[in-house]
Write a structure and sequence with these properties.
Number of helices: 7
Oligomer: single chain
Number of domains: 2
Structural class: alpha/beta
Distance between the termini: 38 Å
Helix content: 25-40%
CATH architecture of the largest domain: 3-Layer(aba) Sandwich
Bound molecules: S-adenosylmethionine
Length: 238
């Protein structure tokens, strides 16, 4: 099926190594359907909190994927309540959260990590804003970075962040191979003109924000720090 460049990039970052893929906040369900078409996992779960969305989606899935009915499930749920505990602890889960703000994405990851400390969980996030504070929060959790990608679709830039928890199926701690850095790290590993353009846009945005803030506020201090750190990334890739 024809999907956006952003969803196509997320699809490309999904390896076929998970028992369950949860397309949380799925809305139109395009991503989950693409994953289902290529049988990316034994079970593809479509999750959305809005009943009219999941009702509509159920009709479309029943039409298009009737023969594969044992491979997909629809859940009308808050993504925080996905029933991972219904499955044995050996099963691997990929949780995709795309199209939500950074703060809400962080709350979901935090909640799921707390709820399922012994499960093998990976996350693919494509947040809409607030990447810096999202990563600051993620860095405090037992997560390690797998990959990061940047892309531009029409005039919008998107970051995709792939994470894994430290815990394997038998509950042993893994070492965090790639710690999470607030400005992004693997994101800039193969820099090109797009990366420069994006960093310049970030810097201009936060320079505007800084001017609007009370110089003695905590937000001012944080914005100044962000500008310094993004400036260092820009210098490093030039
Ligand atoms: C902007 S759409 C994103 C759709 C798709 N993931 C994408 O990236 O194109 C956001 C969707 O998230 C759903 N949503 C918001 N908060 C949610 C939550 N806590 N749990 C499940 N779904 C949620 C909304 O109902 C809406 O359908």
């Amino acid at each position: 099926m024809k999907i956006s460049k952003r969803l196509a990039m997320i699809d490309k970052m999904v390896a076929s190594t998970h028992h369950h893929i949860w397309d949380c906040c799925c809305d139109h369900g395009h991503l989950g359907m693409t994953l289902l078409e290529r049988q990316a996992a034994q079970h593809i779960h479509f999750v959305d909190i809005v009943p009219s969305i999941t009702k509509n989606l159920a009709q479309r899935l029943n039409q298009r994927f009737c023969a594969e009915q044992d491979q997909w499930q629809i859940h009308t749920l808050d993504a925080l309540d996905i029933p991972i505990d219904q499955y044995s602890v050996e099963q691997r889960h990929l949780i995709i959260i795309a199209g939500l703000g950074g703060e809400q994405s962080l709350q979901l990851v935090q909640g799921l990590i707390e709820k399922y400390p012994n499960n093998d969980l990976q996350f693919l996030l494509c947040p809409l804003r607030h990447h810096y504070t999202l990563r600051l929060g993620l860095a405090k959790l037992s997560l390690s970075l797998v990959a990061e990608q940047l892309l531009k679709e029409q005039k919008w830039y998107y970051e995709i962040i792939h994470l894994t928890n430290y815990v394997n199926a038998v509950g042993c701690e893994r070492i965090a191979k790639n710690p999470i850095i607030a400005t992004g790290s693997l994101l800039w590993s193969e820099p090109n003109a797009l990366h420069q353009e994006y960093l310049m846009q970030i810097m201009q945005h936060y320079q505007r924000v800084l001017r609007s803030l009370d110089a003695s506020s905590e937000q001012h201090r944080l914005t100044q720090t962000m500008l310094t750190q993004y400036g260092q990334v820009l210098e490093g890739i030039n």
